[in-house]
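Exercise 7b. Backbone tokens:
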């Protein structure tokens, strides 16, 4: 799966027993999978590409109660390249534990709330900007300032718009980008690490979205400059939205945006 995934899993695994972390619930909707810990820490993973119900997971189905699930075993699912369902469950669990660590140690980070990354970046007219994923709300703002904006999104590859480029051109565009935005969902399709590597010449690399709820250090060590995601404030309401098929516009009112800076 890659060194980044190994680093993320290793960094969070040491707190599981120390902080007596346990699973409260894991649920899956049309767009997202969500893991909530017993202490209400909540992690999400974009999962629209996999529509298997949660009880299709043999491991989860083998347990009488969610509290019997072994978090360490679930984290190993992140490395599964053959089973999409297990992988999104693993990533949502990874993010739930990461959120526990983040908010327990929040004073060690440079962090801004209730803003978008664009509110903190100085983007010049001559910059080459690449977005991996059609990140909601970013494109109109960028097009007011920047002449060269490229959007690469596999879900939009059949549309014909001047700024949309084929996923096959990702490396070419990222290699020459000055500013890069990568959806956190890229971890779910196993491309995040190489996308960051291809962006090594960029001045700014932002990983963004509900799926970007990771611990920050492994990403910062690889050149990411901003990690932007959401803190879930009302897990029960977010969970209800997700199970009903809702996406970010539906559950964001029960969350708080944050940006962590390297």
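Sequence design result:
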């Amino acid at each position: 799966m890659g060194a980044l995934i190994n680093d993320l899993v290793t960094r969070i695994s040491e707190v599981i027993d120390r902080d007596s972390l346990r699973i409260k619930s894991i649920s899956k909707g049309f767009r997202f999978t969500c893991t909530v810990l017993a202490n209400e820490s909540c992690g999400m993973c974009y999962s629209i590409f996999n529509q298997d119900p949660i009880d299709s997971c043999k491991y989860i189905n083998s347990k009488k109660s969610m509290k019997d699930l072994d978090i360490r075993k679930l984290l190993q699912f992140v490395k599964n390249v053959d089973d999409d369902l297990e992988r999104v469950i693993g990533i949502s669990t990874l993010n739930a534990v990461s959120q526990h660590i983040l908010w327990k140690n929040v004073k060690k980070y440079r962090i801004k709330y209730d803003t978008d990354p664009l509110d903190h970046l100085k983007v010049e007219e001559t910059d080459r900007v690449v977005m991996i994923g059609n990140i909601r709300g970013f494109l109109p703002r960028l097009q007011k300032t920047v002449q060269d904006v490229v959007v690469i999104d596999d879900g939009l590859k059949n549309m014909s718009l001047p700024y949309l480029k084929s996923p096959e051109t990702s490396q070419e565009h990222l290699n020459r980008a000055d500013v890069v935005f990568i959806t956190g969902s890229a971890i779910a399709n196993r491309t995040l690490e190489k996308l960051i590597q291809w962006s090594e010449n960029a001045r700014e690399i932002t990983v963004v979205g509900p799926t970007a709820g990771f611990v920050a250090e492994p990403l910062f060590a690889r050149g990411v400059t901003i990690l932007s995601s959401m803190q879930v404030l009302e897990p029960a309401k977010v969970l209800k939205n997700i199970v009903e098929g809702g996406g970010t516009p539906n559950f964001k009112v029960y969350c708080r945006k944050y940006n962590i800076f390297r």
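Instructor comment: The longest helix spans residues 84-104. The longest strand covers residues 226-232.
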